[in-house]
Amino acid sequence: MQHKVIDMQNVVIRFAGDSGDGMQLTGTLFADASALYGNEISTFPDYPSEIRAPQGTVSGVSGFQVHIGSGEVNTPGDFCDVLVAMNPAALKANAKWTKPTATIIIDMDAFDEAGIKRAGYATLDPFAELKIEDRNIIASPITTLTQESLKESGLDNRSILRSKNMFTLGMCFFLFNRSLDHTYEYLEKKFKKKPQLIDANKKVLFDGFNYASNIHAIPNTYMVQPAPQEKGVYRNINGNQATAWGLMAAAEKSGIPLFCGSYPITPATGILEELAIHKNLGVKTMQAEDEIAGICTAIGAAYAGNFAVTTTSGPGVSLKSEAMGLAMITELPLVIVDVQRGGPSTGIPTKTEQTDLAQALYGRNGECPIAVMAAHSPSHCFDAAFYAGKYAMEHMMPVILLTEGFLGNGSEPWKIPSMKDYPEIHPPVIDSCEGPYKPYHRDSETFVRKWALPGKAGLEHRVGGLEKNPDGVISSDPINHEKMCAARAEKVARMTNFIPEQEVIGADRADVLVVGWGGTFGHLYTAVQQMQSEGKSVALAHFDYINPLPKNTAEVFARYKKILVCELNSGQFVDYLRAKLPDFKYLQYNKVQGQPFIVKEIVDAVNNIL
Amino acid sequence: MAYTAQDFKSNQEVRWCPGCGDHAVLASIHRALPEVCEALGYTKERIVFVSGIGCSSRLPYYMNTFGFHGIHGRATAISTGMKVANPNLSIWQATGDGDALAIGGNHFIHAIRRNIDINIILFNNQIYGLTKGQYSPTSKLGMITKTSPYGTVENPFNPGALALGAGATFFARSLDAEVKLSQDILVAAAKHDGTSVVEMLVNCVIFNDGAHAAISDRANRADRTIILHHGEPMIFGKNNDKGLVFRNRKLEVVTIGQNGITVDDLLVHDAHCKEVGIHNLLVNMKHPDYPVALGVIRNVKENTYDDNVRDQLKEVEAKSTIKCMDDLLHSGATWIVE
């Protein structure tokens, strides 16, 4: 058989196995190696909420999809070119995501009768049953080969079996002509104190690579050339890390120390974990006793003069809502990050959704508007978090930043920015004032009050959850209450004078304007771009700022014949737009499956109304 | 500059009911703070009063200091965040039995566990006053209130036992009427590094009048309470003739001069003893079997959370080569596109 190297623009590869099989790590190492090689990448972890669900069952399948390309890559890809299935359950759960031309690598050893039955197949022929016999199936005895490779390593059998993923990774590196160097380096760092494991893992990786090159079952290998990228220094970053760094960047630019009070919750925990590392930069993190303590410690820290944040997911936002009202009425800067997941209630914690928008906009008692922003890609979480911090501090108010599990756990290469390119942040901190300090006297333009920190003589004052008059004295006067509610709302509304205008990707006028927000950007952009290249009259307006909306929103909407609002919920943004800008007719496309859009469904939805 | 009580009084009208025990506690706070500032070298602007919700939580408005009136149950979390954000602040928290022990119970025990350096003044009137008379987590079993018209069927918390169980390093108790004792206790609480819990037994004239009358009535107070002083024998009683001894793993009330008992037989109070056994017995003493313990019952030195946070920040900062965001952004695996 002639071995061919095929040049490809884009390849999607999906690693799937038991949740204990190390598929997340395998996928991450593959993605990192590809990013270092210069490919554009986008990743999507798709894992169950159980740490170790029943072995070999479909509910316990953990997946990690990597999209690599020599051109622009904006999504983790819809369907895969290569599927690695470590057992019959992984094959069953993922077969539907394979392209008809896909290569499927399986661990033959796991496809015995017991394994096939455990995965719930009706017959003993999974491929026929799933109607995928025509795929290029590479059945390798991965377990046996790993055991063989490591029989002299001195490792116990359990540790040996845990290295199966490295063997598979080695095979994939051969398949995609990737160098092993990056993974070697990773292993050397990770097992610095256990040299035995470095050698064992390197060996099994290398053996996997050689095995794949020796067997003739793999007729072709694939070459995805480096993508033409802008000059600069790059790194790989996931959304949670980028969020943490963006918050830290805002702290640095404002000169105000960062305090994060949070409680662990999937899929937001990564932000707290990341912040906890950076004590070297003065970051204070507190793992609070519950979600409410998370936000309340942050509010206390804000009063005392720190840049306060609390990070959570939907259920945590529900618990924090009373305290969000407190931050709002006391007019203290606070960033609340909501890494959205499937709800309601516990819902599907590890899956992605955009179903917290209504909660972010309205989920509090009383008249309590809060600024709401959204991040649109893993690396954009950095900018989004930075500006959430800037607006919170400069406008003396809580800001909710919505990200999504899809962004938080997804990663992409990121051209490293320079801090000198970011604006200064000037919170309205005062050192003294004439006469007694009056907490709710505001700037006439921005409606922002001053930040008077305890410890400064002459600024003694009291704030709290009870309604006050502008001087800070408790008041239940009806007219005062109405005025104070209006002033607080006006302050949020006036943020629109400080945010960028809404941009449109595509022509100024077109038949359809696709409207989206948050983490669906990659899919919507790819779909719109594809349709534009086919000559279709389609444009995209993707919103990073939701409350307030950019000033020119109505003017943008007016230029398009039809508006199609696409979101991963049953219509929360479109409902908001209908209320805010009722003069337009909005069509909607929604999905509530705990999964990102696929490009094709967006294309179909737009074609349906063109 | 020497302060006077007047310096700490705000110009706001105090709105508690006439005869409410909170007035007396407020007076003791106003009197204690000049002494606190003097002893610790604080200036007034370093002091912050934080509260939750309830009658006693109005207190920050009556202080001419920085103040934060929070939401129900969360004062402890708010105080914690403030102290971590700015360890130079002297944080005082006013809270009630409902605020601290029901809705805020979680924050209360975790603040104590962490030993964050805040001073919690717990106004215990064994009733919900601001919502007009429902039972609280410290209401006595069987108490008739609006939400327990046939009597409560649940056991109350003893705040001292709860605090000690959570690892309290400082616990003291006073009576609203004992203004001087309260004042001394508050000064001791301020001097203590770590979470100080001061339980103030206060009367609610409207919804639970006489809550603590059995021990607080002037006629019986000396016989039914004992004021503990570190290093002194545990003596009490109108005639200073009663005392406490430790026998058969229990405390026992004895009379000096009877059965050959002398002052030398009495327990000597050791508030600094790390072993919590005797302190536990002391906080659990109840009328009528025992005198109720007042004064500083426990005052031990342990590392504080805020100090640990500060030390760890310094330590990690000193070791790291990453000094700013630009350093961080370029750390780890990066690659160059030319």
Write a compact overview of the structure shown.
The complex is a heterodimer of chains A (610) and B (338). Chain A is an alpha/beta fold and 610 residues long.
CATH architecture of the largest domain in chain A: 3-Layer(aba) Sandwich
Strand order across the biggest sheet of chain B?
2-1-3-4-6-5-11-7
The best one-word shape of chain A is globular
CATH topology of the largest domain in chain B: Rossmann fold
- State the secondary-structure class of chain B: alpha/beta
Q: What CATH architecture of the largest domain in chain B do you see? A: 3-Layer(aba) Sandwich
**CATH-level-4 superfamily name of the largest domain in chain A:** Pyruvate-ferredoxin oxidoreductase, PFOR, domain III
The number of distinct structural domains of chain B comes to: 2
Describe this structure in words.
The complex is a heterodimer of chains A (about 600) and B (about 350). Chain A has about 600 residues and is α/β, with parallel strands linked by helices. Chain A folds into 3 domains: about 5-225, Pyruvate-ferredoxin oxidoreductase, PFOR, domain III (Pyruvate-ferredoxin Oxidoreductase, domain 3, 3-Layer(aba) Sandwich), CATH 3.40.920; about 235-420, Rossmann fold; about 510-610, Rossmann fold (3-Layer(aba) Sandwich), CATH 3.40.50.920. Chain A is about 35% helix and about 25% strand. Chain A contains 21 helices and 24 strands. Chain A has a 7-stranded mixed beta sheet, sandwiched between helices. The model of chain A has no long low-confidence stretch (mean pLDDT about 95). With about 350 residues, chain B is an alpha/beta fold. Chain B has 2 domains: about 1-210 and about 305-340, Thiamin diphosphate (ThDP)-binding fold, Pyr/PP domains (Rossmann fold); about 225-290, no CATH class. Chain B contains 11 helices and 12 strands. Chain B has helices spanning about 20-40, 75-85, 95-105, 105-115, 160-165, 180-190, 215, 220-225, 275-285, 305-320, 325-330; strands at about 45-50, 65-70, 90-95, 120-125, 170-175, 195-200, 225-230, 235, 240-245, 250-255, 290-300, 335. Chain B has an 8-stranded mixed beta sheet with strand order 2-1-3-4-6-5-11-7, sandwiched between helices. In chain B, helix 1 (about 20-40) packs across helix 6 and helix 3 packs across helix 4 (about 105-115). Chains A and B meet through helix 1, strand 9, helix 10, helix 12 and helix 13 of A and strand 1, strand 2, helix 2, helix 4 and helix 10 of B.
